[in-house]
Amino acid sequence: MGYYVEVPRNFDKAQQIADLYGGILANRPLTFADIPKGKALICVLRNPLFEAAGFCYDEREFNAFHDPNDRRPRSYVLLDWAKASELTGFNQPNRRM
Fold first, then answer.
1. Going by C-beta distance under 8 Å and a sequence separation of 6 or more, which residues neighbour residue 40?
2. From CA 14, how far away is CA 7, in angstroms rounded?
3. pTM of this prediction?
């Protein structure tokens, strides 16, 4: 895992991403293929001292953020693919357009 959206505060990152960048708070898609075309899934994983807002840019990353043995709370944001790429420094084209 390696591409993250940074926002000003350590917590409430999903809401910050929605407010600052036009994201939409969402439920967890069942599979990577369920993410709407042209959108990026940001998985916000809650840790004791901070939240991490990771870009699920492919199926491998999607699965890594959804390890069934990892019980940490998660929230989700759908964000425009180009905006997610810009914010995270991810520079591969969206193969899901």
1. 55, 56, 57, 78, 79, 80, 81, 83, 84, 85, 94
2. 9
3. 0.93
* pLDDT per position as a tens digit, 20-76: 999 999 999 999 999 999 999 999 999 999 999 999 999 999 999 999 999 999 999
- CB of 74 closer than 8 Å to CB of 44: yes
3-class state of residue 10 by DSSP = coil
Beta bridge partners of 24: 78
- Residue of 69, 47, 65 whose CA lies nearest to 55: 65
- Separation CA 49–CA 92 (nearest Å): 31
Confidence of residue 96 (pLDDT cuts 50, 70, 90): low
Coil, strand, or helix at residue 43?
strand
Provide φ and ψ at 84, rounded to 5°: -60, -40
Distance (Å, whole) CA 87 – CA 31 = 23
